Amino acid sequence: ARAGGMGRFSVWDYVVFAAMLLVSAAIGIYYAFAGGGQKTSKDFLMGGRSMSALPVALSLTASFMSAVTVLGTPAEIYRYGAIFCIFAITYALVVLCSAEIFLPVFYRLGITSTYEYLELRFNKYLRLCGTVLFIIQTASKPQSNSLTLYTGIVIYAPALALNQVTGFDLWGAVVATGVVCTFYCTLGGLKAVVWTDVFQVGIMVAGFSSVIIRAVVVQEGIGHIVNDSYHGGRLNFWDFNPNPLQRHTFWTIVIGGTFTWTGIYGVNQSQVQRYIACKSRFHAKMSLYINLVGLWAILVCATLCGLSLYSIYKECDPWSAKQVSALDQLMPYLVLDIFKDFPGMPGLFVASAYSGTLSTVSSSINALAAVTVEDLVRPHFRSLSEKKLSWISMGMSLFYGGVCIAMAALASLMGALLQAALSIFGMVGGPLLGLFALGILCSFANGIGAFVGLVTGFVVSLWVGIGSQIYPPLPERTLPLPLSTDGCNISISSNLTTSTANPLTTIFSTQAPERPVLADRWYSLSYLYFSTLGTLITIVVGMIISLLTGGLKQNTDRKFLLTKEDFLSNFSRSKSDTKVVVLSWKTSTNAAEGTDNPAFSHIEMDVASDKNKVNGLHI
C-alpha cells in the first residue's frame, strides 16, 4: 500500500549502495597484503596490538550502531518520545566503568579472548561456560550483545524494513552484505574490521545528517520541528517515576541501561578485543573516551531524526494509516518521501543503514573467530604453529560468516526487532558481567561461588525474559504517545485492524492467554532491568557461596584484581605507559594442571615485592 507520490529506488541508489560495499571489500584486500599480510593469529585477531586510539574509537562506535540503531531509534523516539536521550548519561557511566574497572585488568594481562581471564582467575570450566554463552549470544545477537543469534537479526531486520518500503531486493541485500562482510573479515582480520568501521561511521553520519538537513528544509527551520515535538509531548526528557515496571524512565535508563551496556562495552569480546588491540594502555583508554563522543553524536542524530519524523507526520501517521507495516519502516518511508526528487540520496540512506549492519556483523565475526581459536582450538592443539593458527582463524571467520547468513534466514521467521534482540542479549549479558565483576572486584570469590552465581543469575534472567516475551507488558507500562491520522487523505481500508501484537507472542500462543499474577508484577519488569537483575544476582550469590566454601582462605594473585595502582596510574603518564609485552605461548611441561600459566611473562610473575613498581607490575 504505497501512496502515489512516493519515490522508488532508482539506478543511482543502487550505484551508491554498491560503492559502499566495494570500498569495504577493497579495505579488506588492502589489509590482507599490507605490511606482509597476516603472518600470525595475533596479527589476524588483534591487529598485531598496534592500533591507535582514533580508529579504534570510531570502530567501537560503529559496531555499537547497527542498522537497528539507524532504523529503530528514530522510530522509538517517534513513538515514545525523546526520553531515550537520557541514554547520554548511561553511555558516560558505561565508558567510565569499562575504562576504569575492566580495561586495566584485561590490558595488563595481555589476553586475546576475555574468557581467558576466567580460566586465569577461576578455572577452565568457567572459561568454557563463558565462551559457549558468548558464541550462542553473538551468532544470534541483537546489537553486539549476543553475537551469533544477534548477527542474524542484524542482517535480516534492515533488509526487511528497506525491502518493504523501497522494494530493495530482500535476499539480494542479505546475501550481499553477508558475503562482503565475510570476505573482508576473512582476508584482512581485525585491522580490516577496524578500518572498514571507520569508513562506515562516515557513511552513517552522512546518511543521518542528510535526512536531518533535508527535514529542516522541508519543515522550514529547526524551530518548527522542536515546536511540533514540544506540543506533541515528544520532549518528555524527565520522568523520575521510580517504578521498575515502567519501560523507560530516568531510573530504568540510567541504572538498567548502565548494566546492560557495560555488559557489552566492559566484558563483551567484540568490544574488548578492539581496545586491547591498542598499542598502549593510554591509547586503549583514550579510544573508549573518544568513542563516548561518537556515541553522543549518534544519539543526537537519531533523536533529531525521530523528532523530524514526528514533525513531518504529526497530522498523518503512516503506521496507523497502514502505509508501513512496522515502526522500523518509518525511516525508509520518510527518506523516500522527502528525497523523491534527489536520485542517489535514498541510496545513501540505505548504505548508511547497511554500514551499521556491516560494522556490527564484522566485529561479531572477528570476535567469534578469536574466541573459537583462543578458547577452543589453541588450548587443545598445542603443537600448531602460528602460521597454521592464522589460517585456522581465517577459516573460522569464513565459517561464522556463513553461520550469520544462515541465522539471517532464521531471523526471517522471527519478529519483534529491537526488544527481543536486546532482551535476549540482556539475559546472557547480565550474568556474564556479574561473573567478571566478581573476579575483578572480589578477592575472595572462588570457582564454585562464581559458577553457582552464574547459573542462578542465568536461570532468573531467562525466567523473566521469556515470561516477558510470552506476556508482553501492558500499554500503560510502556506509555506510547498519541499519534494522529486526521490529516490523511488516503482511504484507510476498514478490514485492517491496528495490531501492535508482539510477533513472538503469536509463536508461543494463539489465543490471548490468561495473565497470571506474575505477568503484571514480575514479567512486566522494564527490559533494561533484565541485565541488572542477572548481574546483581550473580554477584550476590557468588559472594555468599564463595564465603561458605572457604573463599577467604584462597590466595588470589593481585594481578587478576583491580588495584589502587590501576586507578592512580591514570595520573602519571610517564613510565606507566609502557607497552604490554605480548605474551608468547611456549608449551611448558606442566601446563596441564593450569597452575604455571605460560601466558605470563617474567615481568608479571614476581608480584611479591613492592619496590620499583610501575603500574602495579614489577619491573
Automatic annotation (TrEMBL):
Membrane-spanning intervals of the chain: 12-33, 53-73, 80-102, 147-165, 171-190, 197-217, 248-267, 288-313, 353-377, 398-418, 424-444, 451-471, 527-549
Q: Does the keyword Amino-acid biosynthesis apply?
A: no
Q: Which InterPro entries match?
A: Na/Glc_symporter_sf (IPR038377), Na/solute_symporter (IPR001734), SLC5sbd_SMCT1 (IPR041992), Sodium:Solute_Symporter_SSF (IPR051163)
Give any GO molecular function from the UniProt entry: organic acid:sodium symporter activity
Give the keywords, sorted.
Cell membrane, Glycoprotein, Ion transport, Membrane, Sodium, Sodium transport, Symport, Transmembrane, Transmembrane helix, Transport
Per UniProt, subcellular location reads as: Apical cell membrane
Question: Residue span of the signal peptide, if any?
Answer: none
- How does the protein's chain sit in the membrane according to the entry? Multi-pass membrane protein
Which catalytic reaction applies to this protein?
acetate(out) + 2 Na(+)(out) = acetate(in) + 2 Na(+)(in); 5-oxo-L-proline(out) + 2 Na(+)(out) = 5-oxo-L-proline(in) + 2 Na(+)(in); propanoate(out) + 2 Na(+)(out) = propanoate(in) + 2 Na(+)(in); butanoate(out) + 2 Na(+)(out) = butanoate(in) + 2 Na(+)(in)
One protein family per Pfam: SSF
User: Does this UniProt record's set of keywords contain Transport?
Assistant: yes
Q: Which domain of life is it from?
A: Eukaryota
A single GO BP term for this record reads:
propanoate transmembrane transport
- GO cellular component terms? apical plasma membrane; extracellular exosome
Q: Which PANTHER family match?
A: SODIUM-COUPLED MONOCARBOXYLATE TRANSPORTER, SODIUM-COUPLED MONOCARBOXYLATE TRANSPORTER 1
The UniProt family comment states: Belongs to the sodium:solute symporter (SSF) (TC 2.A.21) family.
According to UniProt, the name of this protein is Sodium-coupled monocarboxylate transporter 1
Q: Which gene encodes it?
A: Slc5a8
